[in-house]
Each structure stands twice: as structure tokens, then as C-alpha cells.
Amino acid sequence: MRYNIILLVIAFLGAIFLNNNASSKIIPKEAIRFRVIASSDSEEDQEIKNMVTKKVMDYLDDFQMMDHHKAQTILRESSSTVEALVNSSIKENGFSMTSKVKFGKNFFPKKTYKGYVYESGYYDSLVIELGEANGENFWCVLYPPICMLEKVDEDVEYESFIFNLIDGALDD
Fold first, then answer.
1. What is the pTM of this model?
2. Are strands 32-37 and 121-130 parallel, antiparallel or unpaired?
């Protein structure tokens, strides 16, 4: 009897996992996105995009954006600081390019990232446009703080409580 229950649980969980594909995973509506759009796909413009992205990520890393309202407030209040940081970073590295920093509702095309579907639409976001803003872009999610979690160098290992429970029962 005990093994029948275990097999039913395994079958049930298997059905859930098989139906849980990328198209069914969507980030929360309150997510705040971050995007840096390069002027073009040239090597130099991509280098500038990467440099600006790193500078802004390092700056934003100092903030604890663990709640949607707090993240919105931080980003709204620091938009002019971010713009100054972007412009000074471009200039200090010997490049000449315009930039535009926008916080608010900005359009994002549909994208799949790490198994999650991000539907197209207008989303709360911090968008940095460099030059002509026609090149490949960097993007991630500031809230929940997915961008910041990806910066951690340590490998994170996840465990399933149910799997461990079943595995332990099978060892008995």
C-alpha cells in the first residue's frame, strides 16, 4: 500500500513537471525590467553597452529592491543619477555618444529567458538607450532582483522537499 501511494505521488508530480514547459512560466506583472540598448551591433557599440551595463548594475547593487514599491521609488529617484553615471562613463572611456535614460512604462518585445516567457507589452522598467539605440541589448529583471542574483559567483543548489521525502521512503 505504501509503495502504491508513493507511485501515485511520483506519477502526479511527473504529470505536473511534464506540463510545466517554458510557455507556462510568466514573470509577475509587478516585475521591473532593466534594458540597455546599444547604438548598433558594432564591436565598439557593444563594448560601450557592456561597460554602461556593468556601471549601472554596480550602482544599483547598493540598493535593496526587495519590494515593488521600494524598487519603483529607488529607480524613479535615481534616474538622473543613473543618466549622469552613464554619460560620465561614456566620456571617461573616450567615447562620444548620446544617451537617454527612461524610467516608467516602456515597450518590451516577447522574450524567453531561462525557461520563462516574458510577454510583449509595456512594463515598468529602466531603459537606457545609447546613441541610435538600434543594436543588440542587455536586459534582465531588477524586481524581483533576478539581475542581482545572477551576479553572485557561487553556485546555488536547490533541493526538493517532496523528492527527498519520496527518496527517503524508497530507501526504507
1. 0.70
2. parallel
